[in-house]
Every structure is written in C-alpha cells, then in structure tokens.
Description:
The chain contains 3 helices and no strands. By secondary structure, the chain is mostly helical. The longest helix is centred in the middle third of the chain and has 28 residues, at 27-54.
Amino acid sequence: MKNVTITLDDQVADWARVWAAQHRTSVSRMLGNLLAEKMAQDERYAAAMNDYLAAAPEPISAGMRGHAYPRRDAAHER
C-alpha cells in the first residue's frame, strides 16, 4: 500500500470525517474505495468500448431489406 497526501477544503474535510465516522470507516479507506470503484468503472468502460470497436462494421441499410433511404424532404414532411 502507498501513502498519498491530499489537500481538501476545510468544509470538504469536515464532511468526509463525519461521513466516514457515520459509516464506521476512515477517510483514507473511504477515498480508497471510491478510487477503486472509479478504476473498475473505467476498466469496464474501456473493455466495452474495445468490444464495440472490434465488432465488424455493419451497413446501416442492412435492416431496411434493400430499400433505399427515404429522401430528406419526405422524412421531414409535416
């Protein structure tokens, strides 16, 4: 484990101490958990993006069963 020094506004530090006490943990553990959650979220996002980008491209018109796209003026007719 590494020690990291952070700087917080007084109001934020007070809130963090109260929150940590209410949840029977330390500010250090609270921040460690928050950062671990953020890291896992970013890793899941990167994996999903890689899966998406690895998929073979598919023409948009494939679902239209060979029909041409409607003309712009017809699509926006009121």
